Amino acid sequence: MTEFVIMVRKAMKSANLDSFDRKLLECVRRNNLEPARSLAEKVGLSESSVLRRLRRMRLEGIIIGDIALVDPALTGGAITMHVLVQLYNDGHIRTDAFARNMARREEVVAAWNVAGDEDFVLIVQVPSMEAYDAFTREELSEQSHVRDFKTLISIRPVVDTLISRRPLRA
Q1: Boundaries of each HTH asnC-type domain copy (predicted)?
Q2: CA-CA-CA-CA torsion for 18, 24, 29, 34, nearest 10 degrees?
Q3: 45: how many CB neighbours lie within 10 A of its CB?
Q4: pLDDT in tens, 23-43
């Protein structure tokens, strides 16, 4: 099953959104393929007003993209791993190089440089444990300046991080 979501800009301090815009964003964050007629009924506007507002929010960069969420099993990533990575403390050059390298790997579907005991949190999707083993040997070895890593294997999603559940800021 394919779901569609809207990615919404993080900083909305300068965005001029009224209550109708906010209601529209809440609806399209969950399903951006919902017909304008249905959206208009939900938010109390005309269909043309809904279309005009959505177009404006895209042009202003409030809505920054329309994406399809594809079942990982269809992309060859049926196993999801959360990987906690510690690098040797070599400074920003190695940290930035590791980040660039992870961004190039198709198995890495998300990555964060974090504070604390770990340096990175990766979400890795692979078709098999053999593929994950190959990934770790290529990317998480000492030669890659990785001191240690810990793998958490996902059993099932409980809250999907790709669909924002947080309300828009006032």
Answers
A1: 17-78
A2: -170
A3: 18
A4: 999 899 888 899 999 999 999
DSSP assignment of 145-163? TEEEEEEEE-S--SS-TTS
Across the chain, what does the average pLDDT equal? 84
Contacts of 102 by beta carbon, 8 Å cutoff, 6+ apart: 108, 111, 120, 122, 139
Among 23-37, 63-77, 87-101, the least confident range: 63-77
CA of residue 97 relative to chain centroid, distance: 21
d(CA 104, CA 107): 9
Contact at 8 Å (CB) between 108 and 97?
A: no
Distance, C-alpha 130 to centroid of its chain = 25
Coil/strand/helix, residue 4: strand
In the numeric block, the tokens 């930035």 are attached to 96
pLDDT attached to residue 126? 92
Structural domains in the chain plus CATH codes: 3-69 (1.10.10.10), 72-153 (3.30.70.920)
User: pLDDT digit string (tens) for 126-168?
Assistant: 999 999 999 999 999 877 789 999 999 999 888 776 666 666 6
How far apart, in whole angstroms, are the C-alpha atoms of residue 121 and residue 124?
10
Q: What are phi and psi of 7, to 5 degrees?
A: -90, 130
